Amino acid sequence: MSGGEKKKTEKIDMTLLALVLLLAAFGLVILFSTSAYNGRVRFHDSAYYFKKQFFATALGLAAMYAVSRMNYHFFVSLAPAAYLLSMALSTAVLLVGQEINGSKRWLNLGPLSFQPSEFAKVAVILFLAWQIDRTKKNTSGFWFMCRTMLTLLPIVGLVGSNNLSTAIIILGIGVILIFVSNPRYMQFIGLGGAGIGFIGVFLAAESYRLERLAIWRNPEKYEKGFQTIQGLYAIGSGGLFGRGLGSSLQKLGFVPEAQNDMIFSIICEELGLVGASALILIFALLLWRLCVISMHCRDLQGTLICAGIMGHMAIQVILNIAVVTNTIPNTGITLPFISYGGTSVVFLLAEMGLALSVSSHR
Asked: Is the dihedral of CA 90, 95, 98, 104 positive or negative?
């Protein structure tokens, strides 16, 4: 390989990198503002959540750098093993997982806790890229769509038993990657109908999921609708330019766990419509760069990896904002890079490292 060719292949997408770093920095700032009250009340340390998130972000940035310097084909070759590992970890959660706030989603690893569902998202993206690439000569039939979705059902069932939101994201990633690799469109009508039916069965399987539908329709009627109502109060009181960074009233115990799923409502209260719109614009630019990289890949594997990451980000951002604004029922989905969650930010940054690796091999 000549020096000029080597230099060309090692150049990563600096626009994508800048957007990721901007989101990570913004997330830390807004998290400190949002979590200071809860940290002081619960742990006598206003920076408690910030310090844990800062450590996770630093670890994630190191992972992003390491992954971006490696050839993404290496990770695709490990996809079957990663997929099997994700199923084993998800099974372990059901058996010996730690329950927090009524949800059993974590595994304890000494002093640290780990959420296997976040690893499952990355494993599914890599596994589908590996699987579809192996059958790229026959991706136009209905059987291809069914076969691909059937391979996801084990991990969807394991994750969905205690984390419906992540199961929906995994199914969405599968649909997007099939759409990218399939030249036909009419078949997606049948796939969409099957997906709606599957989600309907999942909702009916547990009474608390049907209860969420009722709360969504009339949050004032139910005690559990308190979080949704307070979040809407925060959004409405922010106005055009907001109360100012750090000046939220709803984060002072009114919005439960404000640093988690409902953090977008505090952004709206402190930074107003302008600040919230700016954040959405940054996410839109990030999705645009992932789309550009996906369209300019030199092989199908790279295209599918970037398309899967783009789909993951788009689904999670749209669902989180829709939940906070009560457009859809509460599903417990975090806002990428912004909400508190160490496992989430580590694997999100690792995904961005994969996208940067693909961009350097265009």
From this structure: positive
